[in-house]
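Sharing a chain and its predicted structure for anyone who wants a worked example. Both blocks are below, sequence first, tokens second.
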Amino acid sequence: MLRFLLRRFGTMILTGLCLSFVVFYLTNLKPNLERLAKTQASARMTQSQVHDWLVEHGYGEPVLKRYGEWLGVVPGWTGKNTETGAPMGRCVDPNNPTTKAATYCGILQGTWGYSTVFRSSVSSILSTRLQATGILMLWVLILMIPVSLVVGIVSGMREGSRLDRGLSVASIATTATPEYVSGVVLIVLLSSPMMGLSPVLRHWGLLHGTALFKGSAASALDHVTFANFTLPVVTVALYGTGYIARMTRASMTEVMTAQYIRTARLKGVRFRTVVLKHALRNALIAPFTVIMLQIPWLLNGVVITETLFNYKGFGWTLVQAAEGNDIELLLGCSIVAVVVVLLTQLISDIGYIYLNPRIRIS
């Protein structure tokens, strides 16, 4: 196991370096740098002025060297402002430029750069936004995993029945509906004071407020309530629930037709005991892998939902960074996404080994 983990960590480091370099190269293409210069200085700059600005701010160096500076293995670039004479550089604190700058100040040293959109350090922005998205993901998983497993197991146990067909149609429908469609439908049905269920319930005297739920989750950043957090959670969970339920049903159907299940039934073992003791563990091997792969999808898939419900988490921050050409923040978001994907794949492989005793590490 130790050799397996060391080998996997080595592979993860190489994969992370390759992916981070690709993202760094794409975000530092010439059009992006020119747009950054015109955004930070003046939109009426000439090409020669743009070139001078980029050279003055350290963007004229080779890509590999700047990648090493950003990573923290090459000494950070330093310079002086031509107008004020104040020191500039990656290692210089823009809020306190007189403080002595460190030699190395990259990702490895914990310096994630400075956001040009939010005018703050990338690390502080990501820590706040990831915490908000983490709360959203937690409630999505709490809702999604039990519901999808129960639906998949019940459907697989009753293969071919009306219940199976009904649950299968519902699972396919939720999987085929993107978040921006299901989110709008939920907003119209449950949070609109003029349409949907709210006017009907008010007419019947069952609702005293304007709507059942809030169409915006902005207030959930300060205080999570059932009214302001239900719709974004359900919107994200709907898609994943149908997908996991379909995988669980397929796995449960295959297990229930195995020879050892038939033998247990012929011996007179109760159906409940056969399902819980013999079939369930083997049937959960494939869904476990799918559930682990849902975590990085949740981190990147909440972009639409957070934007739709104005929930300022990781996805909303990624959209703002892309719209504002915030290179440092885009790189920070990319690194977080890469790390989450690699870690969840490692956990998935380890869990798969423990769930399936037939798998051995050579």
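Comments welcome. The longest strand covers residues 78-80.
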